[in-house]
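Hi R.,

Here's the chain you asked about this morning:
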Amino acid sequence: MPVAVAAALAVHQARCLRQRPDPGGCCIEAFASRTGAGILSASGCSQTSCPCALDWIGTLLFDSGYWSEENLNAPGPARLIASGKARDLPQVDHNVKPPPEDADAATWMLYRLATEEGSATYKRRAATVEPVNGHLKDRIRLRRFARRGRAACQSELGLAALVLNLRKFCRLDPRLRAAALAA
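And the predicted structure, written out as tokens:
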């Protein structure tokens, strides 16, 4: 299990109202299938303040830089990984037939991207991910790194992301801020 998924699961398990060590014991309905292991829904107890609903991840969206056998077969939340540039993605086919059960992970991912639901979900990536990059460039003025080396650039980007998140946190309604700090 990837470290980020394990950490998110540990945080969720500590916050779960039912205090159950397994994901199936809380309000999140877990599932695993050939089309991608992940979390199906977070509507178990139907309480709006339930931390299980707040911790629900849903489907992760990745660009083609993450296309690898390791990422396609990794356990964790459901994911859609592009196989190439937008022009190279499979076209939506209303009559697309699922691949055989013994097909490899790449074939299943291409099938999921060719479905109407998969295509619509992946299209949301541009509206959710790319504005953050533009905001870092325009508002934070992070157009180039001041330090050299991969570790230095990663730490500088981490600091810029922290500043961005703190600015958003300070603009929150005071009641929401208090609730976030209490959790």
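The chain has eight helices and four strands.

Let me know if you need anything else.
M.
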